Amino acid sequence: xxxxxxxxxxxxxxxxxxxxxxxxxxxxxxxxxxxxxxxxxxxxxxxxxxxxxxxxxxxxxxxxxxxxxxxxxxxxxxxxxxxxxxxxxxxxxxxxxxxxxxxxxxxxxxxxxxxxxxxxxxxxxxxxxxxxxxxxxxxxxxxxxxxxxxxxxxxxxxxxxxxxxxxxxxxxxxxxxxxxxxxxxxxxxxxxxxxxxxxxxxxxxxxxxxxxxxxxxxxxxxxxxxxxxxxxxxxxxxxxxxxxxxxxxxxxxxxxxxxxxxxxxxxxxxxxxxxxxxxxxxxxxxxxxxxxxxxxxxxxxxxxxxxxxxxxxxxxxxxxxxxxxxxxxxxxxxxxxxxxxxxxxxxxxxxxxxxxxxxxxxxxxxxxxxxxxxxxxxxxxxxxxxxxxxxxxxxxxxxxxxxxxxxxxxxxxxxxxxxxxxxxxxxxxxxxxxxxxxxxxxxxxxxxxxxxxxxxxxxxxx
Length: 462
Hints:
10 helices; 5-stranded mixed β-sheet; alpha+beta
């Protein structure tokens, strides 16, 4: 097999060399044929030049002087093409012969131009070629030399064609030998390949079986991880709810009671102990800050607006507060009436909006933010966009961006679709669609009973 391969490669090299040689010989034949045609055309043009000159001398008509000049221009162009060919392909003798003929032709055209100018001084010969020498030329010598050059080129073309045919016969013989050798080689190869294919098929079947088992294991693990992610989100929300309730009930009561006591003491000592009253006033301010901090923590963990007033009101309040806090121009496309969705879907949409607005405040450097909620028969769509610097492609591909991963997971957990990209006019564009069955309810119907007063003044609970 090694010997056959070496012979095959060697034969291919020989065939390629023969092909290049055949192509070169064929190209030489074509160029020689073309030169033969051009030499014949040059002879015909010289005859036409003589005829145009004689006709003009007899008739003195400008038509024939123009024809003479046109024919002379064609002769010069043909002569230049042939001169380029002979310098490239012909031997020194042919080059010398054609160079002499070219000089004679130039002298002949110059003599003809002088004759036309002498016969008709007013004739317009400005477009006739100008030659360096003008003298009578032996036309028979020029014609015989052109005929000799034409015969030489025909012989060159025929010789190149004969060599090309001989090389083609040799190439055919070599190709036949290589084909026979390849047939024997292929028979041996197919026999060995059949054995190897059967062996590979067995290995492939084993690999397919293992791949199916791995795919099934990956699917199962992915399903388990998704279920775990959903469970962790639910647990996280439940823990936030429980912690928010304890903060409201326990810490809120403590802060409220403390504020009431400090406010009572401040009123009693305001006139008699101004220094102590000043400290108590500062303590009241600190308690107000603690109550406000407690309220923000509770709202972040479990928004009371969402639980009491519904998703639309919660989104409107969230966006309004963020716009006021960051100095944004806010565009809202929210339904006039509130909607009633599954609690987990409402939480997911609210958390996506909360995280998106937080990211816009931290990174976007935006001046305008829009938020929209579209409710259809079988799905609800949330759209948030800003005109800031926009998210970069590198940020979209980063796998450790927990905010984006969290939003994607929340939406995917309920069978929704999360899409984030750069806006067409810059900024960041976030779209969330979630399938759900909803019931529209008037906003007034969604209002809960009046909440407990704030603790910003003495005697008010949190």
